[in-house]
Structure prediction request, 586 residues.
Amino acid sequence: MIRVKYADTVITIMGRTIAEKILSRASGSPNVVPGDHVFADVDLHRTSPARVLPIFEEEGIEEVWDPSKIVVVNDHGSQESIDEANEKSQARQFVEEQVIEHFYDVGHGIGHEVLPENGHVRPGELIVAADSHSVTYGAFGAAGTGVGKTDIAYISATGQAWLRVPETIRFHVTGEFPEYTSAKDLVLYIAGEYGTDVARYKAIEYTGPAIESLPLDERMVLSNMAIELGGKFGFTPVDSMVTDYVDERTDKPYEPVRADDDVDYEATYHFDASELHPKVSKPHRVGNVVDVDEVTNVELDQVFIGTCTHGKYEDLSRAAAVLDGKEVAPGTRLIITPATREVFTRAAREGLIEIFNEAGATVTNATCGACIGFASGVLGEEEVCLAAQNRNFKGRMGSETSEIYLSSPETAAASAITGRITPPGAV
Amino acid sequence: MMRGTAYVFGDEINTDIITPRGSDYVGADLTDILMSPVRPNFAAEVDEGDIIVAGEHFGSGSSRETAPRAIQEAGISAVVAESFARIYYRNSVNIGLPALTCPGVTEHVSEEDEIEIGLGNGVIQNHTTGRDVEFEPLDDVVQSIYDAGGLFKYYHATK
Prediction:
């Protein structure tokens, strides 16, 4: 990026990234460059009432800035404990008192899928929200990023967030994904090869024909896992697949933002998808990545397919293709958790739920559930789980002595059939 | 004043290590579980003003603000790391707990060294070794939030 200042006018010569364009508009500073800090107006905010309420009380704040731009989703658990049930009640009360327009109570599913399904995620918008996986909205061309509770309270009160304008790195992917490999294998490969801080403080733009060939649900795996690479935003291209999806769900106008052709990215990494193999992250770091063939001796107490990363229809469909007509190994539990009620309904209609049940899996309600050790699949001492999810931090799914491996849904499904980690093409 | 004993941690100290799962729920005593997967009873070792020194990508993972909050409640006055995860960093700024990026700090500071941070001059003095190390300068927005004492103090000062 080169800027020239002439008579108090700044002229930008080089092309601009998606993040720079969105943050320029949102901050009202037309020429922001990476490293600048700005206060930006958010277009949509997902708040977390249980976190915000104590801060509002302490700080004497009575009203949110704009109830029409705030969404509340009662997710993570679905009333798994008294404390959590009380939090959910607090959220309902907050929604009523603040007249929040968009509220999705327990049962709707995981917020990162509920928001796009309901037309709240639009290309070109800035969405600063509770929960680190808010980067998922990058699959729709929105600058989604997660923040903690003081930020959430501040945004709920003011509609503004302080943000550092990030550098942008690009992952350019050509070639075709081989059978039994998918977006998860690509993102785990990147985490293993370049580290889980390759995109720290940075925006990611995933580009190239291999990315454009992916269905939206698969692109969401890449944007969702951007945070696992340290990223602030994770964008995939805005094409007719995205705009058709959005237009079916909202009448609100939006302006898609695309990077200029002559952007000088901080770094561009080139990949050939056709060279990918199924990947697995070993405990207890996402970046601890090996080829699936290197861990086929690992016996599994549990296999889990779900979460904001892999509870979408495409994920369940890939798992079902592997499980169709097969049975889960004795001694291994297979737990499948659709991301949303809409996904569950479609999976039931298309016969996936029947395949899962006949294979001996347990299909749960739509929730974050086992991923964070909340429900239906909490791990006991020294249990070993292969999870199609995003994180394998120590103790995340239960006992501190349990172990979590990460993979794609198809590798998870194949492994449930054999009871040990297994390449998806081998069953 | 930011002066005290340094406790040195490694790379990739994530939020599930700093404050293990479930701890952001009502009634949990944050200091009891602070760092428990790698250093049980850590908070009991800490005296007011002590400083955490850490490696790369400190605070990766969740957006739970319990991570910096637990550190602050234990009496730690600042965290100096080779690098921070993004959300942890901003959470720490927002609650007024200095998070200072200092490449090379884990080579300059060892466990139990006595160190002192000059937030104004950008220098970390190691009183044990007698050597100084500089941390990365703070951005104006971040500096003004620290100066106010946290994001909501900034809110009240500027609204």
